[in-house]
């Protein structure tokens, strides 16, 4: 059951990960970023997602240290994710990238480390590095991001450890049912990035009607849909009132019919790059 902001899903290796967190994609390193992460921690968020390419790991690290002190919590209560970028994919280069991220974040370990994109010819060596880090106890869980079924199948042919997470673009216009089914079959937890489709769904009439019924916002309806589909979600916001609003999704439940209506909005439409055609 997902009844509280700090409720968790158990990954296939036994690690518990919050169903809900905050993402910091495209949030510039600086006071706004630090305040946003501190707001999130203050209001009960325990999962924070960043990446090397976001160029804000140092700010996230400062916010974590300040948030721990101000909210009187322990580091162990937080679940921190970062990702290795495409230019660092490779065995030794991924190990080095991990150390760089840790140093910038000011942490001794990460809870989750992901391969950011499935760059052909590179992601298998990077995965071998993640396995090394995991077996050495340097990271609590390892996974991938933006992997389609063929990428996952190729990775798992040679992997000693299967991914614990696959973080993908996921929203009502891109429901990715095939990937979700594949991940469920293989005990890989699906996680959503861009769950609100960068705001493009906020004036949708169907979603607005459902939101009005529950006296909620369209964003809250979408995030609730994520959770009821068994998908971990990490919406981004830098505004304290939005950070609070986004997390207030545990006091209502969508009906089966409403879930199906939202599913039917799917158009296989992406706001981000196509993982099968990576050119960066």
How does this structure look, described?
The chain is an alpha/beta fold and 280 residues long. It has one domain: TIM Barrel, CATH 3.20.20.100. Helix content is 40%, strand content 15%. It has helices at residues 31-42, 57-71, 91-105, 123-135, 149-158, 177-185, 205-214, 218-228, 240-247, 256-263; strands spanning 8-10, 16-18, 22-23, 47-49, 79-84, 110-115, 139-145, 165-169, 189-193, 232-233. The strands form 2 sheets. The chain has an 8-stranded parallel beta sheet. It is globular, with a radius of gyration of 18 Å. It starts with 7 loop residues before the first strand and ends in a 17-residue tail after the last helix.
Question: What is this structure's SSE topology?
Answer:
Layout: E1 8-10, E2 16-18, E3 22-23, H1 31-42, E4 47-49, H2 57-71, E5 79-84, H3 91-105, E6 110-115, H4 123-135, E7 139-145, H5 149-158, E8 165-169, H6 177-185, E9 189-193, H7 205-214, H8 218-228, E10 232-233, H9 240-247, H10 256-263
Parallel strand pairs: 3-4, 4-5, 5-6, 6-7, 7-8, 8-9, 9-10
Antiparallel strand pairs: 1-2
């Amino acid at each position: 059951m997902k009844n509280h902001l700090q409720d968790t899903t158990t990954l296939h290796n036994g690690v518990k990960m919050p169903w809900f967190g905050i993402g910091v994609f495209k949030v510039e390193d600086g006071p706004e970023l630090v305040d946003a992460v501190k707001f999130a921690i203050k209001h009960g968020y325990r999962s924070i997602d960043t990446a090397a390419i976001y160029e804000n790991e140092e700010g996230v690290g400062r916010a974590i240290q300040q948030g721990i002190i101000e909210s009187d919590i322990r580091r162990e209560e937080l679940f921190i994710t970062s990702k290795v970028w495409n230019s660092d994919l490779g065995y030794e280069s991924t190990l080095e990238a991990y150390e760089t991220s840790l140093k910038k974040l000011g942490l001794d370990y990460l809870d989750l480390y992901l391969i950011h994109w499935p760059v052909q010819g590179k992601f298998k060596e990077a995965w071998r590095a993640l396995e090394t880090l995991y077996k050495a106890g340097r990271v609590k869980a390892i996974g991938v991001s933006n992997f389609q079924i063929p990428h996952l199948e190729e990775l798992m042919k040679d992997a000693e450890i299967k991914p614990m997470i696959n973080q993908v673009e996921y929203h009502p216009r891109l429901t990715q049912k095939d990937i979700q089914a594949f991940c469920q079959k293989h005990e890989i937890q699906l996680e959503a990035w861009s769950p609100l489709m960068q705001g493009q769904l906020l004036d949708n009439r169907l979603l607005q009607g459902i939101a009005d019924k529950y006296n909620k916002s369209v964003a809250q309806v979408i995030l609730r849909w994520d959770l009821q589909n068994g998908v971990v979600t990490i919406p981004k916001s830098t505004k304290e009132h939005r950070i609070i609003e986004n997390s207030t999704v545990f006091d209502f439940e969508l009906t089966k019919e409403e879930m199906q209506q939202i599913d039917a909005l799917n158009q296989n439409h992406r706001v981000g790059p196509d993982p099968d055609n990576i050119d960066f």
